[in-house]
Amino acid sequence: MRKIIHIDMDAFFAAVEQRDNPSLRGKPIAVGHSGRRGVISTASYEARPYGVRSALPSSVAQRLCPELIFVEPRFEVYKAISEQIRTIFRQYTDLVEPLSLDEAFLDVSHHKSATIVAQEIKQKIFQTTSLTASAGVSINKMLAKIASDYRKPDGLFVIPPKQIDSFVAQLPIEKFFGIGEVTATKMHRLGIRTGADLREWSEISLVKQFGKVGRLYYGYARGEDLRAVTPNRVRKSLGAEITFISDVDDREILLDELTAVRDELWSRIRRHEFHGKTVVLKIKFDDFQQITRSKTLPTAIEDINTLKSISEELLCKVEVENRKIRLIGLTVGNSTEPCSECIQLCFDFEQLTD
Ligand code: TTP
Ligand code: MG
């Protein structure tokens, strides 16, 4: 049996704004543009009793809650925090499936207690970001997602296997993950209001009413969801590169630069515990012509000396004499495809040759 956690930050954008501006704390705020055509991204918990919520036009929100304070979104800040929480998730499992900036599924089946992991993650998120998150714990994604919503904000709710049947039976169908407003309305029309009602329906009749997805609903009514937690980013390669402030035409200097790129790449490889067999050297000339040279080993590169000798060997294969070079890059991957995720090193040429 799997152990799945769903984590979701509370009033995410709004909580961040209240964190960073104490004068907004305890007040009804909406993150979004206040203009006539503006739409709200989210609202603080103080604004929600007025009916102010995500995706509402700003003008409507203002009418519902006259003292509502509008705050412009700061996406870079939300993205940075999202990265911070994902780093915490990865301390517990590789199987992290982010659904958006502020929520993710985690498969922690290899841990003894998913509940303790969820508690620890909530604590770490708070220590690191001063923000609260809610967590749901159960045996599959659907139940974990419902559970995280159940005790918001700052909640932790566990649906243990023995309680699944009774929990699902009393659950209003609009609370099921994946049943949106349109489906819920249709179900209401059919007299399906709770999990128990849904359970009365055979698989074939649900498919007749709702199409293929009816099969999923049939499982939902029984607390079943076989979907795996799938990390959506499969890293195919890691790379580093330098664009020179002024073009380089000296092999010795180029070798120095290659060393700097290689050291940066190696630290990334270690950080990501990446195992690649193919090294690709990329060189861009001053006329923007770009060439690559690559070598594939029978096994993954596990030490920096191998990376060093291969990268220098590849550089020897490039005719650089009498040509000006503006960029040098190295990638390690599993295939010979060029790097999709190279990073630009932020130091300039003069500093490197000191
Ligand atoms: P949610 O997790 O749906 O909402 P929330 O975190 O604000 O509140 P809750 O405590 O109920 O989880 O979405 C996360 C963020 O995504 C939210 O803060 C703002 C953004 N968002 C939008 O920009 N538009 C939308 O329609 C929704 C639903 C969210
Ligand atoms: Mg949220």
Describe the structure.
This protein is of the alpha+beta class. It folds into 3 domains: 1-159, Reverse transcriptase/Diguanylate cyclase domain (Alpha-Beta Plaits); 165-230, 5' to 3' exonuclease, C-terminal subdomain (DNA polymerase, domain 1, Orthogonal Bundle), CATH 1.10.150; 237-335, 2-Layer Sandwich (Dna Ligase, domain 1). Helix content is 38%, strand content 21%. It contains 13 helices and 13 strands. It has helices at 12-20, 58-64, 75-90, 114-129, 141-150, 164-170, 181-189, 195-199, 203-210, 214-220, 251-272, 304-316, 349-353; strands spanning 4-9, 29-32, 40-43, 69-71, 96-100, 103-107, 133-138, 156-158, 237-248, 278-285, 290-296, 325-333, 342-344. The strands form 3 sheets. The protein has a 5-stranded mixed sheet. A hairpin with a 2-residue loop joins β5 (96-100) and β6 (103-107). The radius of gyration is 26 Å and the shape is globular. It starts with a strand and ends with a helix. Mean pLDDT is 90; it is low at 335-354. Bound molecules: thymidine-5'-triphosphate and magnesium ion. Magnesium ion binds at residues 8-9, 12, 102-103.
